[in-house]
Write a structure and sequence with these properties.
Helix content is about 20%, strand content about 30%. By secondary structure, the chain is an alpha/beta fold. Helix 3 packs across helix 4.
């Protein structure tokens, strides 16, 4: 079968389409025929060598939407089931940008029925990141949350879920995204090129990686949650500092799939690329300015 991999680090040109064996599910695992798989910044980081692995062949892709093709004994899935999932892990020989992928059974959830595979593939990493970041912030209904980078994949889902959980949400993004974010649940909007208010929020989820700049809007003793481990600022004023290390969680993903069917979460896709054009997809990701995911279609 074909898979997108890298054997040397670099820019989009480092992405190769290689022939690899069809993976065999081990105990507690499921093989999925991939229908679509989103491209995320973490894939670009893996391609560039951020996570190491020089001299290895590394598979790309974490998100997946597709159909169960075969299962190991005792797992609660059957061939033909429509699923989505998250294949976390760095420096694995094969990711989800492939014709088939193997995932742990407990990393999978039923695919939402209200959207197609292409849109469903944009959900797992971004929606799980948003939900788990909110869990870490541990704010109560009525408390004030600032979301930086609110128009991005993680940021927009954070706004949606925070609103659904009863938080008072302020979205920080480009002025052109204000109407979109208000529709998705933002109570207030801050243009990203204007000064931030001081000590106004109980928590901040920093999807834009502002770091130190995101601390000033927090009250003393507030909560800062970063979305890229190792990039978080030093603590001050009793602010709790933490960083998300997203984990696969099929049960939580099933809840997010249901929220997609209910219209709480909006799966956004900007463009699809065939698997053989994965390098071109990486090049488009590097250009930035996206308002929705790029999705690889085998």
């Amino acid at each position: 079968m074909r898979a997108a991999t890298v054997s040397r680090f670099g820019g989009p040109e480092a992405v190769e389409i290689t022939k690899v064996p069809v993976p065999v599910p081990g105990p507690g695992q499921v093989r999925i025929k991939v229908a679509a798989a989103a491209l995320n910044p973490v894939d670009a980081a893996m391609r560039a060598g951020v996570f190491g692995g020089a001299g290895e062949r590394i598979g790309l892709g974490w998100d997946i939407a597709g159909t169960v093709e075969s299962v190991s004994h005792g797992v609660p899935w059957s061939p033909g089931d429509r699923v989505i999932g998250l294949a976390t892990g760095h420096r694995t020989p094969q990711g989800t940008h492939a014709e088939y992928a193997v995932l742990d059974a407990d990393a999978l959830a039923p695919a939402p029925t209200a959207v197609d595979y292409i849109h469903a593939a944009a959900l797992p990493l971004n929606a799980l990141s948003a939900a788990q970041a909110l869990d870490m912030a541990a704010l109560q209904p009525g408390q004030r949350l600032l979301v930086t980078g609110a128009a991005g994949g993680v940021g927009a889902h954070t706004v949606e879920l925070a609103h659904h959980r009863g938080l008072k949400v302020t979205a920080l993004a480009s002025a052109r995204d204000e109407q979109f974010l208000r529709v998705r649940g933002a109570d207030h909007f801050l243009p990203r090129d204007e000064p931030l208010p001081s000590a106004s929020f109980d928590g901040v989820i920093d999807a834009a990686l502002l770091g130190d700049k995101a601390l000033a809007p927090l009250r003393d003793g507030g909560a800062y949650i970063g979305v890229w481990p190792g990039q978080e600022p030093a603590p001050e004023r009793g602010i709790r500092i933490d960083a998300l290390d997203v984990r696969a969680d099929g049960a939580q993903l099933a809840e997010l799939s249901q929220l997609t069917d209910r219209g709480v979460l909006l799966a956004r896709v900007t463009r699809t690329f065939p698997l053989e054009d994965a390098a071109a997809a990486h090049a488009r990701l590097a250009e930035g300015g996206l308002r929705g995911r790029l999705v690889i279609v085998p």
